[in-house]
Amino acid sequence: MISYCHRFHGHTSLNSLYSRSRTIRLSPLMLMRYQPTNRRSGYRAAVIVSRKIHKSAVVRNRIRRRVYAALTNYESKFSSPYDLVFLVLSEAITKLPYSELENLVLSQLKQADVIDSSSSTAPARAIVKKAQKED
User: How distant, in Å, are the alpha carbons of 33, 113, 120 from that of 110?
Assistant: First the structure.
């Protein structure tokens, strides 16, 4: 989950974004609406998953958490403050591997010039292996 300062607050907070934003749809699974803002120093983000996508709130929240996790990997690379909304369009995103979901979010952010297009394709992660116990 993203921190409190990076979320939208209130019922009408998304209205200006829907009326003045640009849309990017690179996949039939998800689209992104974005708008640069000068009102704050950081970004704000929302992930919208309709009940038409899946009836279960557990599954909808899991989708939302996965998209937020993919977004937070790139938050340090934002070029300036933006308002972002990710709208999930298909239930197939539940079966999408996390690496592909992360690449989808990254490609949408690059297409919108929210992050620098010369950024690496994936964030650096440490791989931890368990030490094998010898008897």
Answer: 13, 5, 11
